[in-house]
Amino acid sequence: MKAALIHNLKPPVKNPGLPADYYSECDSPKTVAAIAAALKKAGYDVLLVEGDKNLPRWLSENPIDFAFNITEGFIGDSREARVPALLELMEIPCTGSGVMTLALAMDKTRSKQIFRQTGVPTPNYQLFTRADEAVDASLKYPLIVKPNAEGSAKGISAKSVVRDEAALREQVRQMLETYKQEALVEEYIEGLELTVGILGDQPLPILEVDFSGCGDSGEYFYSWRMKEFQGNQQMHLDPKFFCPARLSDQATRAVQAVAVKAANALGARDISRVDIRLSSDGIPYVLEINALPGLDPEESNFPIIARAAGISYETLIQRLAQMALARAANELSEITLKEEKLGR
């Protein structure tokens, strides 16, 4: 059985005209090799292909049975949904969430609107299209400023947390100019940094990220530098991980329930990771959903969580492939059944 591993490799040389974090969502050769090895071990014939504008022609010239997709994309508001949309059009089974979910998850504000409608706690927020817009008087400082449609903590630094209007407007201005998109401003939640991996429809052990030893870096939350240089003790970017998180059984169940509710609200499937801040008064605020979480075998959060659940990296990758193929088989059966009923 042939599988295409569709990815975006980090270029060897960065474009100096782009933000330093522009390529941070791209895949490393190590990650691509690890996924390919896991698939090959399960007996799949793996073909590697870049998820770029040449992909449609490649797919038409290289018949495959399914695609293992980790493509982030570069262009467009719904860039993560482009490859799955193409695969759906060509009726090629694909791992992970569908087109609608990936588009919604990329837009933080739309995600938060859905969270609000479905009763998922999320920090109060305001979307800015201009730096001089009136600030919602109900927002309480400190606030954190983010690009509205980026992942991997792109655009987030120590300066992102602001404590007065002047700093807020300056940070919004920089977001608008640098990332050419709206700036999401939300209330900064003091509390525990948690992330919940969901495999299929099951929440895995909660991962707690402890930034208490990173104070000298000025960044005590997941910033781009924290993710890019994670483990660098000289830069004081060395968070501690606890999986399972240091929570009571009751708090664990509450956080996992909210995570599953948030993932369901966006229609996530197969694999997703829900980022949460647990406030001092015990409210699990959902910050965002990563419907295409990183799969670096050593550094990415989801494989760390999977290992804590007793799931090896190879097993994780193979399960994702099996879920995609099983879903395709079920969809084919449903189509056949409908055709038979219509024929009668």
Name its key features:
344 residues, alpha+beta, Rossmann fold, Dna Ligase, domain 1, D-amino Acid Aminotransferase, Chain A, domain 1, 3 domains, five-stranded antiparallel β-sheet, four-stranded antiparallel β-sheet, 10 helices, 12 strands, 20% strand, globular
What does the model show?
- By secondary structure, the chain is an alpha+beta fold.
- It has 3 domains: 94 residues, Rossmann fold; 64 residues, ATP-grasp fold, A domain (Dna Ligase, domain 1), CATH 3.30.1490.20; 121 residues, ATP-grasp fold, B domain (D-amino Acid Aminotransferase, Chain A, domain 1, 2-Layer Sandwich), CATH 3.30.470.20.
- The protein is 36% helix and 20% strand.
- The longest helix has 31 residues.
